[in-house]
Amino acid sequence: MLNRNAVFKLAAAVAAIVFLNAPLAAQSSQAPARPPADPGDVESVDAIIAAVYDVISGSAGQDRDWDRMRSLFVPGARLIPTFRDSTGGRALRVQSLEDWIAAANRSLVQNGFFERELYRITEQYGNIVHLFSTYDSKRTPDGEPFARGINSFQLLDDGNRWWVVTIFWQGESPDNRIPAKYLR
Fold first, then answer.
1. Among 7, 89, 157, 166, which residue is least crowded by beta carbons within 10 Å?
2. Measured distance CA(34)–CA(75) in Å, rounded
3. Domains of the chain
């Protein structure tokens, strides 16, 4: 359970992401229409998270269903990986969904990639949800994990369905291990 200070820090981080994305939301009326979602993919928090993990996972040589992925995300959504830069400093890359698909597609299809959720902590207020989803990544469904990390999802219930607004993630590293509370 998060203490009050952690909740305030989390709320400030989410507010910063929303504030930084405000100009993008204003432009979303000009963005191409999203493909219609499978109602089963967007009927609940569990369903949309499962759909995200499912659509990015697949064997080497298997094309991903990027229209399905697009149907899960609000126009203007952001995917934000964190990483160590060339100097060893911490950095992030803010990407649109289309930028992320263009950057990730070749590697996912060429190498095979299966990501699964290990554990989740969810906080909801009204029609928004923040959740930490601990994951591991494999090249084959039964292979050994080559990576672990935490995805921070921000979701919106618009009254008709769930949408992914942001995924902000960090992979585990030797100097930054996933705390036990995220691996139950």
1. 89
2. 7
3. 4-27+39-182 (3.10.450.50)
